[in-house]
C-alpha cells in the first residue's frame, strides 16, 4: 500500500479547518459559503457594534438579505426561494452568525418559521401571496408559539381561535417573539373550538393586533423581540393553514430552525476562537506572548477540537436532510451540542482576553451573551436532553 509522504500538501495540517470541511463541499456549496462570508463582512460586520450597543434593528436588512438570496433559501424558486440544499442553508447560518447571532435569528425566523410553514402547510393561494414578498424582504415575518406561561410546554397554550361567521377570532398573547414589533406577517398557533392546535396567518394592521417591543435585553440586541397581543382579532377563514394540525406542524418548523442554529452557533464559536488565538499571539506578558503558556495552548486545542467535530456533525446532518433520512432527534442532539460547546468556547475566549474580554469592541462578550440566548430558545439544553433520553428509553420524562 502506498502512503503519501507526511510532508506532502495532502497531509498538511490546517489549524483553522483540521478535518477539511472545505474539501467535503461541492463547488456550488463552496461558492455560496464564500459569497455569504464576503457579504457578511461587507454588509453586517460594519454595523453590528453600534446596533448591539444601542439595541437597534434595521428593518432594511431584510431587503438586503433578500437581494442576496438568503431568505427561504431551501424553498423552490417559483415562490422566490433559492432552491438550495440544506447544507447551503447551514453554511449561510454559519457565516451570518459568525458576525452576530441576532442577524442569524432574523434570517432563520423569516426562512424556517414563517416561509416554511406557509409553504409546507398553506394553500397555493397563500404561497403565491406571501412567499415572494417574504423572500424579497419586502415583508417581514414572525412566528408566535411561546406564551408567557407556556415555553417548553407549548401544548398548554391558552391562545384561542374561536370560530365565527367567515373565519375566527383569536384571543391571547405570545412572548419572546423575534421580529414581532416590525413584522408585516404573523404566523400564530392557537387552539380551535375542538382544542386542536392550528396555524393562522395574521397581517399587520388587523384590528386588535399589537406587537409591543420587549426592552432591556442583555443578549441578542441586534434582533428586535416583542410580544404578540391578540384582542379578539378577526382572521378570515382563508388565513388558516389548512394542512397544519397539532404540534407536529410548528415542531417541523422549529426543527428546521434548530438545524440552522447548530451551524450558526459554531460560526459564533469560530469567531471567538479566532479572536482569542490572535489576541494571545499579540499580547505579551512576562516578556513573551500569552500563546507561549501551556494553559493557553490547551484552551486553543479544546476550542479547535469541539468546533471541528461539531462542524462535521452539522455537515452530516445536512446531508441526511438532503437525503430525507434525518430523524428530528438528530437535530436535537446537534442543537444541544453546538450551543453548549459554543458557549464553552466563548467563555474560554473571554477569559483569555482578560480585562479586554468584557469590552464589546472585541466581540467575544457579545457572542457570549448572545449564545446564552441561543442555548435557551427553540428548545433549552435540558429539553433536548429529555428528547434524546425519550428516544433511548421510550420513557417520557417531561412531566411527572
Automatic annotation (TrEMBL):
MF annotations from Gene Ontology: fatty-acyl-CoA binding; flavin adenine dinucleotide binding; glutaryl-CoA dehydrogenase activity
GO biological process: fatty acid beta-oxidation using acyl-CoA dehydrogenase; fatty-acyl-CoA biosynthetic process
Pfam families: Acyl-CoA_dh_1 (PF00441), Acyl-CoA_dh_M (PF02770), Acyl-CoA_dh_N (PF02771)
E.C. number(s) listed in UniProt: 1.3.99.-
Every Acyl-CoA oxidase/dehydrogenase middle domain range: 142-233
Cofactor: FAD
Keywords in alphabetical order: FAD, Flavoprotein, Mitochondrion, Oxidoreductase, Transit peptide
Annotated Acyl-CoA dehydrogenase/oxidase C-terminal domain residues: 245-391
Main location: mitochondrion
Compartments, as annotated in UniProt: Mitochondrion matrix
Domain Acyl-CoA dehydrogenase/oxidase N-terminal, chain residue ranges per copy: 26-138
GO CC annotations on file: mitochondrial matrix
Entries under PANTHER family matching the protein: GLUTARYL-COA DEHYDROGENASE, MITOCHONDRIAL
Family: Belongs to the acyl-CoA dehydrogenase family.
Record's protein name: Acyl-CoA dehydrogenase
Species per Swiss-Prot/TrEMBL record: mine drainage metagenome
Gene field: acdA_5
